[in-house]
Amino acid sequence: MPNRLRTLLASLCIVAAGGAALWVATDGLRVFTTETARRVSIRATPRLLPDVALQDDAGARFALADLRGRWLLVDFIYTRCLSWCNVLGGDFAQLQQRLAAPLRDGSLRLLSISFDPAHDAPAELAAHKRRFGDHGIGWTAARPLDAAGLATLGHAFGLKVVEDGMGGYVHNASIALVDPSGRLVDVFDAGAPRQVAAAVQRRLAQ
Amino acid sequence: MSVRALLWWLPAGAIALLASPPLRHALETSMTAQMLLQLPLLAVLGGLLAAALPTHVRTALARWDQGGCSGLLLASVTSLLWMLPRALDAGVDLPWVAGAKFLSLPLLVGMPLALSWPRMGFVLRGVVCMEAIASCFRLGWLFLATPQQLCSNYLLGDQQRLGYALLAIGGGVFVLLLGRLIGGRWTLPAGEARRPR
After folding, report:
1. Staple A186 to which of A119, A177, B48, B72, CB 3.0 to 4.6 Å?
2. Architecture of the A47-205 domain
3. Which domain covers residue B14, as residue numbers?
4. Each residue of A189-198: pLDDT tens digit?
């Protein structure tokens, strides 16, 4: 076989193998970042959430599984946060108005979970809600009771927390939707409460 | 120890060192260090490994790599995969992807480039340089223009610093090449032109 033909053959194999690898690595040229990969995977195969012991902003203990039977909007926050958690807090206060009816009749609940449980005791969690103008309906702020619970939750939700080098954190801030059977079914961007409300209303109307 | 064995063990040892937990951690805590130090170092070490290949292996490979075409394609496709933000994240988070990174960058990027570069003609080398500059500008612009973190493991500030660094590197290589084009020789040395391809 002449070298030119050999080279052509080798090149074709490389392009085919490389194209296949690229296709797999990007889920068919759709997914380029870890965050998109997380959302695509959650929408395609909803994840049953583990049961984790939590403590709410009034100091009461409860289990995540106790909240089954209603839709949940979940965000992850830490109360010392100066950036994205503030966006999320504002989103939840707005969602309280946009989704007042289902929140009032108990078919929906807002749940903020702190990933800094050592600092965020019930008093800090309650202050977090007040800071964003909590309207007093259907919003619970909570912290995991132990480190293992936080790790389990973080893994299930695909939470990614990076230290920002100034004593704070940066995390993949978003709002997760959990269905009444306790499965994580969708993830929305922070800062877009109107879209979140519309999506939840579609689900509730189904 | 023979010279060839040294040529083999020195780069291989350096790759193992880069894969050791302390150095890995040091270079992977920042996106800039990972993309501008760790990944290029792995490729360069792979290029050094090429010199340790026995002559009969090099001759056999050359028959499948006329004009440096296959080697260039292999290196391009592999480096393209490692430019995906998702791949960078996974290389830090998942052990098997990390293994793929520490093997593929030396063996599928650095080594084939080092083997193929001497076989490439003037035009193809020019295309490679242009593409390298364009990639620096493309990625740099992308990192600066994206208001969100592309890698979940790294901060936005880090991403933007890397964006500026890539623009600077792209600009630097461009100026260097421009200087060679204006002030350098236009004809290839006689030996270069006559060498069998």
Report:
1. A177
2. 3-Layer(aba) Sandwich (3.40)
3. 3-194
4. 999 999 999 9
Task: Enumerate the domain spans of chain A.
Answer: 3-30, 47-205
> Per the CB < 8 Å rule, is B155 touching A164?
yes
Q: Coil, strand or helix: which one is A143?
A: strand
Q: How far apart are CA B180 and CA B168, in angstroms?
A: 18
Token reading at B196: 């069998």
Can you state the angle between helices B85-93 and A34-44, rounded to 10 degrees?
90
CB pairs under 8 A between A and B: 82
Q: What's the CA gap between A200 and A186, in Å, rounded?
A: 10
CA distance A184 to A192: 19
ipTM of the assembly? 0.86
Which has the closest alpha carbon to A43: A161, A186, A206, A171? Answer: A186
Give the residue numbers in B contacting A (CB under 8 Å), as ranges.
62-67, 69-70, 73-74, 77-78, 80-81, 84-87, 89-90, 148-156
How many structural domains are present in chain B? Answer: 1
Question: What are the CA-CA distances from residue A111 to residues A76, A185, B20, B53, B169 (Å)?
Answer: 9, 15, 41, 60, 46
Q: Phi first, then psi: give them for residue A159, nearest 5 degrees.
A: -70, 135
Contact A197, A186 (CB under 8 A): no
Residues A16-56: tens digit of each pLDDT: 999 999 999 999 999 999 999 999 999 999 999 999 999 99
A37/B64 Cβ within 8 A: no
Q: Read off the tokens for B72.
A: 């260039």
